[in-house]
Predict the structure of Retrovirus-related Pol polyprotein LINE-1.
Amino acid sequence: MKLSSIWYLKLRSIFEPVKDNVINDWGIRKNEKLDSLYQKLNIMEAIRTKRLKRAGHAWRNQNPLLYIVLEKNPTEKRPIGRPRMRWEDRVKNDVEELGRVNDWKM
């Protein structure tokens, strides 16, 4: 299946660069390789995996600003309407779907 150039840009951001061990350098994946990966892998599974990796990185980070953003409750007035799903809620849902512990922050 031939995809448009916008799809290839999105797939490159999802599947990340690949390291060439021969020349010891990083490079982008070619369209043919992206086509084969797109056919084999569930895109939602790839997105969930990346989100969980970022969550682990964020919680291990020692940055005090990041701690404030992740741990503190906002004090400003909320907008009207249904609140958008937070990144933290999505990570929590991913962990629960995998059947892991509920306290994923540890």
In short: The chain has five helices and two strands. Residues 52 and 91 are 6 Å apart (CA to CA). Strands lie at 18-20, 25-27.
